[in-house]
Amino acid sequence: MRENRVMRENQIMREDWERQEDLIDLSKTEIATLLHQVFPGTAIESIAAAKGGKANTNLKVVLAAPVGPVLLRLFVRDPAAGAKEVAILQRLAGQVPVPQVHGFAPDNAVTGHPYAILDWVEGRRMDLALSAARSQLERRQMAAAVGEALARIGTLTFPQAGFLSGDLPSGDLPSGDLTVSQSFATGAAGFRSFVAEATGRPRVAQRLDPALRDDLLRFVEDVAAVLDGPPEPARLTHCDYDPSNILLGRGDAGWRVAAVLDWEFAVAATPLLDLGHMLRAPQGQDPLFVTALGQGYRAGGGILPENWVAAAKLLDLLAWLDFLDRPGERPRLFADAQSVIRATIDTWPALLAQTDPGPRR
Predict the structure, then answer these.
(1) Among positive and negative, which fits the CA dihedral 107, 111, 115, 119?
(2) Which tens digits make up the pLDDT trace of 273-303?
(3) Distance of CA 159 to the CA centre of its chain
(4) Where is the domain boundary, 103, 119, 135?
């Protein structure tokens, strides 16, 4: 079918991006050492690198029965994110589909990195499921499922917006207690401030075309007011709510979310950030997908402003600016970031005209 061909030709950009950190090469003996705290003496049957992810080391380790497969996740990019991610998984268990935590350590004698031992969740990555979908109905089911899951994620609220940290009691798993370790401003004022600060960073200034930077600053000054609205609590926000981080399962009722993975970037903010991420190409170019995403979010109890698509796409610029500040040379990522920033500016009138027919605030 033509629609399947279009989806395949518009593959998700991040599949082509360079890794930020090399995979850590571990021997079978070293892996057994890391797993010993939870599964002492259990034989390892196979080891394979888990697909997806550009920074941390994730290994699928199949252990002898009755244990079976587990995920060994080493936090390489940001060691401090380990305790936070595990605390989030503890808090969301039973409310949102997430992997079960078997164990966590803040460091290790093999590599020195924090690491977690998680349940291996069977499912199909959403990006792959979307590209293989045989009908619009299937894609709409997937969109609605991730929208509903996002609404459930947002039921975890905080007294203020900001960066999160997870507690780490000695000798035990993080309890699930999350605190805002550093607050930040939201709404139009916070958005303008972040963009001004980000564009002034040395790496961003070097990589961002000067003319595009000037256009972006003028654009942000003109349109940021769309982000102001009635006060709302700060909600748990994944900040990498990408189809490659979502596993889907399929049952008699259609597609469902099997697990939401990789919480290292999570903050207390607005779910519009995650909706903006989900609106990226290629799935965000499909109006039926976008409509179903909003419907699923509302079905899960979430409330959306009338102009949520424009607001979400605007907030997603924060992530693309952050990409331009990543260390190392990643030319494909940096080129994509500039393309998306330019496209958002150029298509803004059409985005603003894209109102949602669902309930309003």
Answers:
(1) negative
(2) 999 999 999 999 999 999 999 999 999 999 9
(3) 22
(4) 119
Tokens of 143: 């969109």
For residues 162 and 205, membership in a common domain is answered with: yes
* Structural domain of 61: 2-119
List Cα–Cα distances, 95 to 16, 150, 177, 261, 299, in angstroms.
33, 11, 16, 14, 15
In a domain, 253, yes or no: yes
* Tokens linked to 296: 């699923």
In a domain, 256, yes or no: yes
DSSP-derived 3-state class of residue 46? strand
DSSP secondary structure letters along 227-268? G--S---EEEE-S---GGGEEEEEETTEEEEEEE---TT-EE
Give, in order, the Cα–Cα distances in Å from 194 to each of 197, 301, 314, 322, 339: 5, 30, 13, 10, 20
pLDDT in tens, 2-23: 334 333 334 445 565 554 567 8
Contact 69, 99 (CB under 8 A): no
Task: Give the chain's radius of gyration (CA, Å).
Answer: 20
How many domains would you assign to the chain? 2
